Amino acid sequence: MAQDRRSSGAPPRRMQLSPAARRAAAARRRKRIRRNRIVFGLLVLALVLVVVLGVRALLAVGKGKPADTSVPDSSAASAPAATPAPAVTTSVDFTDARMILVNNNMGLPDGYTVETQVGDAATGKELQTEAAQSFAAMQAAAQLEGVSLILQSGYRSVEYQQGLFDQQVEKMIKTGLDEEQAREQAKTVVAVPGYSEHNTGYAADILTESYRIMDSGFADTDAYAWLVKHAAEYGFIERYPEDKSAITGIIFEPWHWRYVGAENAAAIQASGLCLEEFWATYGSAAQDTPVPESGSASADGDPASSAA
Questions:
Q1: Around Cβ 86, how many Cβ atoms within 10 Å?
Q2: Burial (CB count <10 Å: 0-12, 13-18, 19+), residue 207
Q3: First to last CA, the chain
Q4: Cα separation of 58 and 267, whole Å?
Q5: Are 123 and 151 in contact (CB under 8 A)?
Q6: Domain residue ranges of the chain, discontinuous segments joined by +
Q7: Per-residue pLDDT for 91 more than 70?
Q8: For 127-197, where are the alpha helices, taking DSSP H only?
Q9: Angle CA(223)–CA(226)–CA(227) in degrees, nearest 5?
């Protein structure tokens, strides 16, 4: 019997594997590695989720909310009542006689009277006393800058306005309209007596030496440009702007300016609103407040007139 040459302490010789067996073993190793990677990734993801949920719970507790993230921040049952928006206000006093609103839908208050004086010595046209003085100051200031301002039309008594309106009705009747139709047509040309701003004494139709026609062409003059820039300083606002016709009910009348006082004019001009809008926005509480009377009236014979 042959003697065994291996010592008793030597490791056994590794069995030589066939190529196919080696490939199978390598495949098994790769499979185990992939499985281990997937398990490790899932463990990491679970750990991240635990950390995120823990942080959210701590934040919720810090804000006084329940830790249960399924509870909404607010609900219709527990939400506090919405705070009402503050009322829109202005420093303008709507009981000021200078802020009177007269248009096609709102006539003069009962018993309205006004004191007037000549505002333009050249034309003899009158305005309410304060308005006349302010126009004269504005006229002088414009003149210093080479711009002429002419008070073409000012205060008209209700009686005088009635005469203008009746004349217009007669003209319409002569075109073949019946009296009712003629009156309706006349309203588009001459304001109904008591519904004309000129009856207040605060309305001024302003033209210039080089342009004496009351039409939209006045908007192209230096006088109009000067008024747009400076009239509010003297208490006058453009009463019927081109982009407000749908609100005022009056066509663009660049010659028609309205005295409201310098402080009121500044507020109205800053708002970008026409007088109707300004009243609707800020003056609703004063709608039923009677306008203070200011004395006795004086008549004005005014051959030139506009619908307002």
A1: 6
A2: buried
A3: 143
A4: 53
A5: yes
A6: 20-71, 97-156+196-286
A7: yes
A8: 129-144, 158-174, 179-187
A9: 90
Q: Among the options 253, 263, 276, 277, which is catalytic?
A: 253
Cα-Cα-Cα-Cα torsion 291, 259, 190, 304, nearest 10 degrees, comes to 130
Distances (CA, A) of 107 to 39, 165, 212, 219, 248: 88, 15, 29, 28, 14
Q: Among 3.40.50.280, 3.30.1380.10, 3.10.450.50, 3.30.1050.10, name the CATH number for the domain at 97-156+196-286.
A: 3.30.1380.10
Six token digits for residue 147: 């711009």
List of long-range contacts for 136-140, beta carbons under 8 Å, 24+ apart: 137/234, 138/230, 138/231, 138/233, 138/234, 138/236
Q: Is 183 exposed, middle or buried (0-12, 13-18, 19+ CB in 10 A)?
A: middle
131 vs 136: CA distance, rounded Å: 9
Under DSSP, is residue 103 helix (H, G, I), strand (E, B) or coil?
strand
Q: Looking up tokens 């042959």, which residue turns up?
A: 2
Burial of 246 (0-12, 13-18, 19+ CB in 10 A): exposed
> Residue 277 in contact with residue 126, Cβ under 8 Å?
no
Residue 119: which residues within 8 A CB-CB, separation 6 or more? Answer: 125, 126, 127, 131, 132, 133, 135, 136, 151, 154, 204
The beta strand positions in the chain, using DSSP E, are: 116-120, 125-128, 150-153, 203-207, 236-238, 256-259
Distances (CA, A) of 66 to 49, 53, 77, 179: 19, 13, 17, 79
This prediction has a pTM of: 0.66
Q: Catalytic: 115? A: no
Sheet strands (E) in 1-113: none
24-36 confidence digits (pLDDT tens): 666 777 777 777 7
> What is the pLDDT, as a whole number, of residue 13?
53
Q: What are residue 275's phi and psi, to 5 degrees?
A: -65, -40
55-85 pLDDT tens trace: 666 665 554 544 444 444 444 444 444 444 4
